[in-house]
Amino acid sequence: MTAVVSASRAETIEFQGRKAQRADSRERRRAILEATLRIVVRDGIRGVRHRAIAKEANVPLAATTYYFKDIQELVSDAFNLFAQDALKQTEQLEETGFAVLEKLKGANLADPQIFEVLSTALTNAVVSHVKSQIEDRDKRVVEHSFKTEALRNPALALTACIPQANITNSLMNFFKALGSKDAETDAHIVHGVILYVEYLLLLDQGILSLEQAQKAIRRMITQLLALAVKR
């Protein structure tokens, strides 16, 4: 059983606006992008306007048009900044999964007791990830806002696919390490369930409780593990 650890993926995200060379210029550019994200949380994508951003970032109006040729480019780079930071959480989940496998290295994963340990550890890791995601509600609002906008904006859709592909790739690497015969499909199943569970928990309308979410995640993981390790 060999762990397949993916390389850092931050370099796959390419910013479109004017590059900043000096430290103070980089700080101003980032301040503009962070202000954009705050506006998205408060007012949605439609609230993103040059004047609103300049006021929120406390910068001259000319600064927003200096770094970004139009609103579309600014929105795209704001999402790039968000996605770049989000990659760290993806890497943490991946590292946790491989750490579990490392502890069981050489063990017979099909053994009922070992299988139970693995299933429980992975369930706890995914549930912990989900909890951390929904606790940062503003970031999830940003994420869903950009996903919705990407349905109307082909350029933004390309950007939106990068963090999604990175998460699926991380999960696929994990299932390959387990010996899954269809690691890509397994990865899509896990990713889909995580997104669905997060969304319902964020709505907080009683459709899904955290306890029910944990049961669903455990069942999914147990069944996929059974396919991967029980020949």
Report on this model:
The protein is mostly helical and 231 residues long. The protein folds into two domains: 17-69, Arc Repressor Mutant, subunit A, CATH 1.10.10.60; 78-229, Tetracycline Repressor, domain 2. It has helices spanning 23-43, 50-57, 61-67, 71-103, 112-135, 137-150, 154-178, 183-203, 210-229. Helix 1 (23-43) crosses helix 6 (137-150). It is elongated. Mean pLDDT is 86; it is low at 1-11.
* Structural shape: elongated
Largest sheet: none
Question: How far apart are the first and last residues' alpha carbons, in Å?
Answer: 15 Å
Fraction in beta strands:
under 5%
Give the CATH topology of the largest domain. Answer: Tetracycline Repressor, domain 2
How much helicity do the residues have?
over 70%
CATH architecture label name of the largest domain: Orthogonal Bundle
Average predicted local confidence, pLDDT: 86
Uncertain spans: 1-11
Keywords: DNA-binding
Organism: Simiduia curdlanivorans
Domain HTH tetR-type: 26-86
DNA-binding region: 49-68
List the helices and strands and how they pair.
Blueprint: H1 23-43, H2 50-57, H3 61-67, H4 71-103, H5 112-135, H6 137-150, H7 154-178, H8 183-203, H9 210-229
Helix pairs in contact: 1-2, 1-4, 1-6, 2-3, 4-5, 4-7, 5-8, 5-9, 6-7, 7-8, 8-9
